[in-house]
Design goal:
mainly alpha, elongated, single chain
Length: 450
């Protein structure tokens, strides 16, 4: 083995240990996906106010109305994980307040009171309002509730406060009814859209299997990789190493300064993410130009033909990625996740939204597709064959996000991206698929945040 190959192998093993260690460390952390799933279900809780509405068909109620029993079980799981992990005290207290209200609304008042005793000031307010032995109003109760709760949890607490104070709840009830009606229509259309997308995706998957059986599909020739194995692996390893140090350097060097200069925390975070990903993208393209483009041949198969593979691949990816997500939830208690997800959902500044969208929907797909599908996949395929290259490049793609909760879904997405690139022989198709996936996820998180 040449000396260059030896130190490349050692470099790859060192990175694998580092990335694998960080991936395993996320298993014990609360999952961002679980937190977002809870936020999504929290947003649907006002639909419970339609439970006794005779104008809503029972079949639709079953399909759309949240299940409090299932939601309590999910909150219990996240709460127990959060208590064991490095979750901030404020986040744990909020979980106690919300889980307590869910208990109270399902008649489990003893469990609710036990949680609220550990909920600091807001917990004391809720305990005073719901305790059947001594319902009383503490000073500044409404101010404290509004500062700590929102959505359904706040409305239910304010309604209980009005009952204890013997005030009219008519205005609250009218507001609840109007909100529930609007949310019901939105949820119905959203569910129909998601169902239609999943059905189309399943149809495309079945059609693709049929095409293979009819021999209308083949692997064709390996996509060209005119560079050597060592050059291709060098670009990937150099980028992964640089991306890790860039992320650390930008975070340590800019975060404190941005927090001082930019008053809005979400905008400061968005600028930090944008700068980090911009440098990361420049590093990726720079390595490709310096190491690979010197071969004086086209680096990628890139064009405007067969872009339909991008849209079709996105739809076909939906049921597969969803299935992997469901499997992950069964085998990984927590799993960490990308904090960018919750930042998108919580963004209030329009400039923060614009910067994050450009970062997620453009910079990340371009850089990652050029590297993983444009460089890594054909490099592996030249030596190992197409199918092993699809699997390995997908697994590496999932692993570099360093999240146990995201590993299987993103590895599956990476394999689909490689398959689309091989079949379409057009990197623009996989970039399009990646952009669609990130853009729709971004839009969903914005809707969730609102």
């Amino acid at each position: 083995m040449h000396s260059r190959s030896v130190w490349l192998t050692g470099w790859a093993l060192l990175l694998a240990v580092l990335i694998g260690g960080n991936l395993l460390a996320t298993v014990s952390r609360p999952s961002e996906q679980e937190t977002l799933a809870l936020s999504a279900q929290d947003a649907q809780l006002p639909l419970l106010w339609l439970r006794d509405d005779p104008q809503v068909p029972e079949a639709l109620k079953v399909a759309v109305l949240p299940n409090l029993k299932d939601l309590i079980a999910q909150y219990q799981k996240v709460y127990q994980t959060a208590r064991r992990a490095t979750t901030t005290p404020e986040e744990v207290i909020l979980l106690r307040l919300k889980l307590g209200l869910l208990y109270a609304k399902t008649g489990q008042l003893t469990q609710a009171l036990d949680l609220w005793q550990q909920g600091q000031e807001a917990g004391q307010v809720l305990e005073s309002l719901f305790a059947s032995s001594a319902r009383r109003v503490l000073p500044d109760s409404e101010v404290i509730l509004r500062a700590n709760l929102k959505g359904w949890y706040l409305t239910e607490s304010l309604e209980q406060l009005a009952h204890v104070q013997k005030r009219s709840t008519q205005a609250l009830l009218s507001q609840k009814q109007a909100q529930a009606d609007t949310l019901f229509k939105q949820s119905l259309w959203l569910n129909l859209f998601q169902l239609a997308a999943l059905l189309v995706g399943l149809f495309l998957l079945v059609r693709e299997i049929f095409f293979w059986q009819q021999q209308k599909r083949s692997w064709g020739n390996v996509l060209p990789a005119p560079w050597s194995w060592d050059d291709g692996i060098l670009v990937i390893l150099a980028w992964l190493t640089g991306a890790i140090f860039l992320g650390l350097g930008v975070g340590l060097g800019l975060k404190g300064w941005l927090d001082q200069v930019i008053a809005a925390p979400d905008l400061a975070f968005a600028v930090l993410v944008f700068v980090s990903k911009s440098l990361d993208t420049l590093l990726a393209l720079g390595l490709i130009i310096l190491v690979l483009a010197r071969k004086h041949v086209p680096v990628f198969a890139f064009g405007l033909s067969r872009l339909s593979w991008g849209l079709g691949g996105y739809l076909a990816a939906l049921p597969l990625v969803l299935g992997m997500s469901l499997i992950t939830q069964k085998i990984v208690a927590g799993g960490g996740g990308n904090p960018l997800l919750t930042s998108i959902a919580d963004s209030k500044s329009p400039w923060a939204v614009i910067l994050l969208f450009f970062t997620v929907a453009f910079l990340a797909p371009v850089a990652e597709e050029c590297l993983f599908r444009g460089v890594l996949f054909p490099t592996l395929a030249q030596r190992w064959g197409i199918v092993p290259a699809i699997v390995v490049s997908g697994l590496v793609f999932g692993a570099i996000h360093m999240s146990a909760a995201e590993f299987l879904p993103l590895a599956t997405l990476g394999m689909i991206l490689a398959y689309v690139y091989q079949q379409s022989r057009n990197l623009a198709s996989s970039i399009m698929l990646h952009m669609l996936f990130n853009s729709v996820t971004f839009g969903t998180l914005l809707v969730l945040g609102s």
